[in-house]
Design brief:
Elements (H helix, E strand, L loop, with lengths): L4 H11 L1 H6 L3 E3 L14 E2 L5 E2 H4 L8 H15 L19 H23 L3 H4 L6 H7 L10 E3 L8 E3 L5 E3 L6 E3 L1 H12 L3 H18 L7 H15 L1 H10 L7 H19 L10 H16 L3
Antiparallel strand pairs: 1-2, 3-5, 4-7, 5-6
Helix pairs in contact: 4-9, 5-11, 8-10, 10-12, 11-12, 12-13
Bound molecules: adenosine-5'-diphosphate and magnesium ion.
Adenosine-5'-diphosphate binds next to loops.
Length: 303
């Protein structure tokens, strides 16, 4: 949304000492190449530790001290408001209009992400039974959401973007998709992308809610009705990046382990998206493998 991770990190660390402590210190902004200027990448301070997925892979339960850290991160973000952050684009919803916010997200997924992935992978999505207007059908059925005050959102808090340091301190990297908006969106992306075991799902949401309510009133208002909508949205939209990543993971020569993981990833993404996208039937593992192999063959020219 802001397209400037350096600036976001500067504002975030200025407005929250807690977040300043647990996100990378920005050292030098990225520079676009231009007249006489060479391209320079963004430089951040290195954070000691391992990403969470290296210690607790997707599907594994997290011990409660780590959960407390993660919930604390959300509470710190809840306190950072629009006025504390870089100015938002003029077409970005602001204030507390959750309905406008989810529509803005969905419009982006539908207009920018879906057609791009469909064209890039043509005709794989069709072969996997994903009709062109699947996301539109979902968007058309979004009801009005409760108004909730907007705050800072990270929007990509998965195990690969959480770094566990000494004394189980959890830091957050990869702020490139940060934005302002409805706090229920951020817990939804987190829940879908973390892959918590079913036994932990409700308790994480319960602690998150308690912690946000203590941080700032009104942030979790209407959660019972609106969380399922955001969870469904996240499962629906993530089908496109998930299939793209799976297909892109295959090299010119198929390595069977990589191929099997790509098939499994597509299968679980399709299963998650089936209900929200109203897919009548999803292909089984064998059908996915056939579609993926054919698509790959057409790309590498019959090898
Ligand atoms: N400030 C940092 N400190 C330590 N490791 C980092 C830092 N930033 C990135 N990394 C490492 O680089 C990887 C990719 O960085 P990330 O910012 O998550 O980019 P992306 O996921 O968009 O490729 C991370 O998973 C992590 O291992
Ligand atoms: Mg990352």
């Amino acid at each position: 949304m802001w397209n400037d991770e350096y600036e976001v990190l500067q504002y975030v660390s200025k407005s929250s000492p807690h977040l300043a402590d647990l996100s990378p210190q920005p050292l030098r902004p990225a520079r676009q190449p231009g007249a006489g200027i060479e391209e320079e990448p963004l430089v951040l301070l290195f954070i000691e530790g391992d990403t969470l997925d290296a210690v607790y892979p997707r599907g594994s339960a997290l011990p409660s001290p780590l959960l407390d850290e993660i919930v604390g991160i959300f509470a710190a973000m809840a306190k950072v408001q629009e006025v504390d952050l870089p100015r938002v684009p003029s077409d970005w919803p602001s204030g507390d209009d959750s309905s406008a916010f989810i529509r803005r997200l969905a419009t982006f997924a539908q207009r920018d992400v879906e057609p791009l992935v469909r064209e890039k992978l043509h005709p794989l999505l069709e072969r996997l039974g994903l009709p062109e207007h699947a996301l539109q059908r979902f968007v058309d059925r979004i009801p009005r959401l409760k108004r909730r005050p907007f705050c800072l959102l990270h929007t990509d808090l998965h195990r690969g973007n959480l770094v566990v340091g000494p004394q189980d301190r959890v830091s957050v990297i990869d702020w490139e998709f940060a934005m302002t908006g409805d706090p229920i969106y951020d817990i939804s992306t987190h829940m879908v992308r973390m892959g918590y075991p079913a036994s932990q799902f409700d308790s994480v949401i319960g602690s998150w809610k308690a912690s946000l309510d203590a941080a700032r009133p009104g942030l979790t208002e209407g959660i019972r009705a609106d969380l399922p909508i955001y969870l469904a949205y996240e499962r629906a939209q993530s089908i496109y990046p998930d299939i793209l990543r799976a297909a892109s993971s295959l090299g010119a020569l198929i390595e069977e382990g990589v191929f099997a993981r790509a098939v499994a990833r597509i299968e679980s993404a399709l299963q998650r998206a089936a209900a929200p996208l109203q897919l009548e039937r999803t292909p089984d593992r064998r059908q996915i493998a056939t579609a993926l192999r054919e698509w790959h063959r057409s790309r590498v020219g019959g090898s």
